[in-house]
């Protein structure tokens, strides 16, 4: 059996690019499928230029690769099932289906993984919003297709019901109780189908519903941190996880509630490239190949700042003044407002938690 494999990645964005970099330095070859010939992964891998649900392009990837993985969850699971060979997609498509639909996801988390989530119910039309107890606040989220706060309405009073009803009549939704959280955290966990390895707890700060900053370790008690890692491991084991998964959670007093899971490396885990002995991309590649996973060590506290289109100049100036900071740019040609262009990781003493771009 050859040690070096050809790994096919569905999606050639920054996550695909960073997965590819990890795979390449372990000696593997990478082919990514992406609609854009000049996608970030094109800097380091061959690209099959096609839409993600293009079955003949997926077949080409299947024929040319030993192992397949994906960089995002909105891959057509049926199309993948139709083409992959047994054992070729270690992450499987069940996990894709769970994370593509908030109803499946909540049911899986609450009933199967048995972790705490905000109280929720399935909403099939605006009729389900009648007789809502408006002493409490809620978040209404579309079951599919939402991201970064899109497809969501917060209901704090009767005044919000009209907008919420419109959303409820346009798509199947989940209604969650609003959690008054102290902070948002996430935990990266990677599996190889048998064992798992877990990363430190990340504290996440969002601006305009986009991740702005991650602070590691999260500013919570060791007991809460252990609880968060235990939850992530519990979910990973229930899934017989292969590859990397991110579990996003809310901390509310002594409680930890799971918000959602992402079946792939996650923006909040980018700090691990420099701050840990192995990055979330390294363990993703090891995991999907079914190889032994290392215990994760944090070398130093870290902060990670996202570089959006509007932050490019500030980020470059910052790294010129702070040469110990690590600037990553993903090679995207057009710097649009709010587009993730790169990130900066600052380690150790230089990691001031107040800094923002
Ligand atoms: P999501 O798309 O589920 O990740 O939600 C986007 C953001 O909305 C989260 O990062 C939270 O800041 C906020 N949010 C989501 N669900 C809730 C909730 N049940 N209670 C309070 N805030 C929430």
UniProtKB/TrEMBL annotation:
Ranges for domain ATP-grasp: 107-289
Gene Ontology MF terms in the entry: 5-(carboxyamino)imidazole ribonucleotide synthase activity; ATP binding; metal ion binding; phosphoribosylaminoimidazole carboxylase activity
Catalytic activity: 5-amino-1-(5-phospho-beta-D-ribosyl)imidazole + hydrogencarbonate + ATP = 5-carboxyamino-1-(5-phospho-D-ribosyl)imidazole + ADP + phosphate + 2 H(+)
Domain of life from the UniProt record: Bacteria
Binding site residues for ATP: 102, 141, 146-152, 176-179, 184, 206, 259-260
Cofactor list: Mn(2+); Mg(2+)
Functional pathway: Purine metabolism; IMP biosynthesis via de novo pathway; 5-amino-1-(5-phospho-D-ribosyl)imidazole-4-carboxylate from 5-amino-1-(5-phospho-D-ribosyl)imidazole (N5-CAIR route): step 1/2
Single GO biological process annotation from the record: 'de novo' IMP biosynthetic process
Top enzyme class: ligase
Entry keyword set: ATP-binding, Ligase, Manganese, Nucleotide-binding, Purine biosynthesis
GO cellular component: cytosol
PANTHER family xref list: PHOSPHORIBOSYLAMINOIMIDAZOLE CARBOXYLASE, PURINE BIOSYNTHESIS PROTEIN 6/7, PUR6/7
Assembly mode: Homodimer.
Function description: Catalyzes the ATP-dependent conversion of 5-aminoimidazole ribonucleotide (AIR) and HCO(3)- to N5-carboxyaminoimidazole ribonucleotide (N5-CAIR). Catalyzes the ATP-dependent conversion of 5-aminoimidazole ribonucleotide (AIR) and HCO(3)(-) to N5-carboxyaminoimidazole ribonucleotide (N5-CAIR).
Family note: Belongs to the PurK/PurT family.
Protein name per its UniProtKB record: N5-carboxyaminoimidazole ribonucleotide synthase
Organism: Streptococcus minor
